[in-house]
Amino acid sequence: MPNTDINFMTAVELAQHIRSKELSCAEVMKAHLDQIDRVNPKVNAIVTYQPERALEGAKAADESLQRGDDVGVLHGLPVAHKDLVDTAGVRTTYGSPIYVDHIPEQDALMVERLKQAGAISVGKTNTPEFGAGSQTFNEVFGATLNPYDLTKTCGGSSGGAAVALACGMVPIADGSDLGGSLRNPSNFCNIVGFRTAIGRVPVWPSQTPWSALAVQGPMARTVQDAALMLSAITGPDERCPVALTDAGEIFNPLAHSLERDFDGVRIAWSSDIGGLPVDPRIVSVIESQRGTFGELGCDIDEACPDFSGANEAFMVSRAAGMAATRAEMLETHRDQIKDTVIWNIEEGLRLSAADVGRAEVKRAALYERVHKFMETYEFMVFPVSQHPPFDVTQPYLTEVNGVQMETYIDWMRSCYYITATGLPAISVPCGFTEEGLPVGVQIVGRHQSEFSVLQLAFAFQQATGVWKQRPEIAV
After folding, report:
1. Is residue 336 exposed (0-12), middle (13-18) or buried (19+ Cβ within 10 Å)?
2. From CA 119, how far away is CA 127, in angstroms rounded?
3. Is 257 one of the catalytic residues?
4. For the chain, first and last CA: distance in Å?
5. 24 is an active site residue
6. Of 43, 129, 218, 347, which has fewest CB within 10 angstroms of its CB?
């Protein structure tokens, strides 16, 4: 079987071929390592690379199958870890020169669970400094390039993961999302990124374990692959105080079909998320697929909840978190921190208790309004990003559709408004601009309704087939 056939098999297909012994874990790993060697120098997605360790792990995985051991759902699948997540004995820089030689002593919980499920790491994927900003570049490793146009950004902050997936370097990868970091790069790279409810994927270690903004989660080329990975990383853990208690098995597409009848299901549709500036190219692609949801049986209304207060709720909470985790570093390493992170930390340090309290009250009111709105609608469908992939040499967008952006993340309101609601949201390939740049659609579900979000995303994916369009450099 040609390598590229293996590289672009779905994770579900690879898992089945490995279990049936039609493919060995070593064959699968070798194909992916060859693809990394061939394509990664062009895009800079994987920044700490461990091919020998990965191949050894694959051989051990084959031996386990030969012995008849009980193996996990991801057994033998190559995976890459975002350079924000701790990996025992493997360099983890957080995209910062301060941590250029940092080697953690323990795995993060998500890495631990991926290993337990049988996934084998090939290394670490690039991220912006401390994951700040939806453009993947840093002083340690440089920029990661969009494989559909090497002059454009891949988004962020899970940009390296998105590119590795789009290029067939791995079938699954982990990411994280505060203001859109699972969704934005997926949208820019024609793959799937799923932001779940807080606690669905428990996070440990964490300096702020009670945080109700940041999540970790799955990225893949297909919805069913994201579901497969999600099944391995969910479930309770006492080290995470907000972990949900539901078991992850429900998400396993090998055990539970994602098929569903959507006849009569009501969707709230807005191509500008209630009045945000959105580039016409994005609107054109999103609107071109409205009929697809209708063909699935959905009843579609032009409607959007009132997002007033979302901006303050998110920006204040984000700044407070920056101050809580980075203030001491600002004092000791200011000259090694990028300007946007310095600004964000200092914004947090300027906040008063009243500022933080007011933001929490506004977020509570936002949740109540959106919850009431979604008693009528089971899903909301929006753009993921307000602008297509832009010049990779530009740190962030300063203008969208003629409207000036005040901060380095203002152009991501389409994602972080959803973050502020706490609702699950997935980015699914939707189409391409006339220039050939990927555009994703954002499907938002009800409170903790991840399985239903996966079902609608799967139905849309199957109806469109957009995910099958690969970047030319990867084929």
Report:
1. middle
2. 21
3. no
4. 15
5. no
6. 347
Cα separation, 152 vs 40, in Å, equals 16
| Of 134, 158, 181, 206, catalytic | 181
CB-based contact 322:341 (threshold 8 Å): yes
Give yes or no for a contact between 87 and 124, defined as CB atoms under 8 angstroms apart.
Answer: yes
SS3 readout for the chain: CCHHHHHCCCHHHHHHHHHCCCCCHHHHHHHHHHHHHHHHHHHCCEEEECHHHHHHHHHHHHHHHHHCCCCCCCCCCEEEEECCCCECCECCCCCCHHHCCCCCCCCCHHHHHHHHCCCEEEEEECCCHHHCCCCCEECCCEECEECCEEEEECCCCCHHHHHHHHCCCCCEEEEEECCCCCHHHHHHHCCEEEECCCCCCCCCCCCCCCCCCCEEEEEECCHHHHHHHHHHHCCCCCCCCCCCCCCHHHHCCCCCCCCCCCCCCEEEECCCCCCCCCCHHHHHHHHHCHHHHHHCCCEEEECCCCCCCHHHHHHHHHHHHHHHHHHHHHHHHHHHCCHHHHHHHHHHHCCCHHHHHHHHHHHHHHHHHHHHHCCCCCEEEEECCCCCCCECCCCCCCEECCEECCCCCHHHHHHHHHHHHCCCEEEEEEEECCCCCEEEEEEEECCCCHHHHHHHHHHHHHHHCHHHCCCHHHC
What pLDDT, on a 0 to 100 scale, did the predictor assign at position 267?
Answer: 98
Check pLDDT > 70 for residue 99.
yes
Q: What is the pLDDT of residues 364-389, one digit of tens each?
A: 999 999 999 999 999 999 999 999 99
- Report the 10 Å Cβ neighbour count for 27: 18
Given the residues 121, 157, 186, 452, select the one marked as catalytic. 157
Q: Residue 225, CB half-sphere, CA atoms under 13 Å: how many?
A: 27
Tokens of 328: 């001491």
Confidence at residue 3, expressed as pLDDT on a 0 to 100 scale: 66
Strand partners, 439: 431
Share the mean pLDDT of the chain.
97
Q: Percentage of residues in the chain with pLDDT exceeding 70? A: 99
Strand bridging mode 137-138 / 142-143: antiparallel
Active-site residue 42, yes or no?
no
What's 39-94 look like in SS3? HHHHHCCEEEECHHHHHHHHHHHHHHHHHCCCCCCCCCCEEEEECCCCECCECCCC
- Closest residue by Cα to residue 255 from 231, 233, 277: 231
Q: How far apart are CA 340 and CA 344, in angstroms?
A: 6
pLDDT band of 128, cuts 50, 70, 90:
very high
Catalytic residue (choose from 82, 124, 152, 362): 82
Centre a 10 Å sphere on the Cβ of residue 214 and count the other Cβ atoms it contains.
Answer: 20
